[in-house]
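Why run this: before we spend reagent on co-expression, it is cheaper to look at a predicted model of the complex and decide which construct boundaries make sense. The entries below are exactly what would go into the expression plan.
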Amino acid sequence: MDIATPIPAFGPLAPDLQLDAQGRLRHLLTIEGLSRALLMELLDTAASFAGVNEKAVKKVPLLRGKTVLNLFFEASTRTRTTFELAAKRLSADVLNINIGTSSAVKGESLLDTLRNLEAMQVDMFVVRHAESGAAHFIARHVAPHVSVLNAGDGRHAHPTQALLDVFTIRRHKPDFSSLCVAIVGDILHSRVARSQIHALNILGTGEVRVVAPRSLLPASVECLGVRVFEDIRQGLKDADVIITLRLQRERMDSGLLPSEQEFYQHWGLSAERLALAKPDCMVMHPGPVNRGVEIDSCVADGPQSVILEQVTNGIAVRMAVMSLIMGSMAGGEA
Amino acid sequence: MTNPPVFDVPALLEQMSRALATRIKSYPTPPAMVGIHTGGVWVAQHLHQRLGLDKPLGLLDIAFYRDDFSHMGLHPQVRPSQLPFEVDDQHLILVDDVLYSGRTIRAALNELFDYGRPASVTLAVLVARDGRELPIEAQVVGTQIQLLDSQHIKLRGPAPLRLELLSTNLAAD
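The model came back. Tokens follow.
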């Protein structure tokens, strides 16, 4: 299967599904196909919300009376918590529903779940699911008043993570055209990497690299608009930003890798390897961090790391996405 | 058609700063000033300079506090609010360009109180026109005017500041 363009169990991924007739966000399912102007609008709005998170009362009344439902079919701490905080800081009511991971939870049973939740007058579903295409499937079938926000579907997309990553990069290095960004590690299983690559390319990033062993690269990864490096030293050389990815052991079929220790030896981000990049290179990681597997503790906690800033920025970025979607729903006479 | 009124903005600002200077004398502690984006910030910048206030000017964008979000959606350009001083126990001068329905000031007060509990808030506006929909009035006013429902007054700037009278069909810019 061509993993760069997954053909999920839930059917085709219609790119236009997430935009309304005026080109505004109706759902957020993937970064792919979004315009540069829309990405910039999201990032600028997020910058405004960053101020809210520094106030004494970290709350604005924008989504008062709206109900956001976190529908998580797969484990998550950071993403679910920051979505919950984002919704609460917008004064929305938030429900969290964790549905145990099960490959049987799809098709008819998922639709049944959906109908029941819609009947509770919910305005937005934030969906995480282990199957690629789950958020699209839900967006295709929800009632017209409900918006869907993809919080990660299988290997396909994790759009808000990519947005918070480019938001974090932009705060430190605003000119994307001059940047070299190296994404290192388990690209194959990473929906985060796919969304990051789309976002970085839409924003006109000078060079986007993927640095990984062939066994952890999707078959046609070059089609996404990246340079592939199978040598970590070359891949990190003169990078402005390094994004390390979590080694996703739970998604791995056996045989892709010998051991975690060996992965670290060949692909882990150590202080010595970080020195190959530019002196002011930013170190990023979407979390959760496997210390001593894809990144050394001293790098993860070091002065070049913005890993915790990414978490903080995730709240403002998710507030921006939610309010822009709810805003276009509100103003949508068409 | 009658001739449109001509506003001497520098003279109005001078008059406002004199009125504010008198009020400030009665404050036990020096006040801080907050301008509401965008026109209010322009007016506040002038007043802040004329009064020689120590604390840096605060900026407020009330987009997240508007009462028409559920009809209009989010304002396309929201600038971050910045209040570079403690709001708790602070005497505040809130500045806007035009006071009309009072809804902007309602939103601004709500936002200010999310930063803290000010000792007092004084409202200063360049123009107070008729048409209030809320029990809100300014303590310091550059000029009071009466307009038809179809007329709007708009501050153009930042330099020079100029008040423009528009009728509704022209106001949609």
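The CA atoms of residues 9 and 160 of chain B lie 9 Å apart. The mean pLDDT of chain B is 91. Bring this page to Monday's planning discussion.
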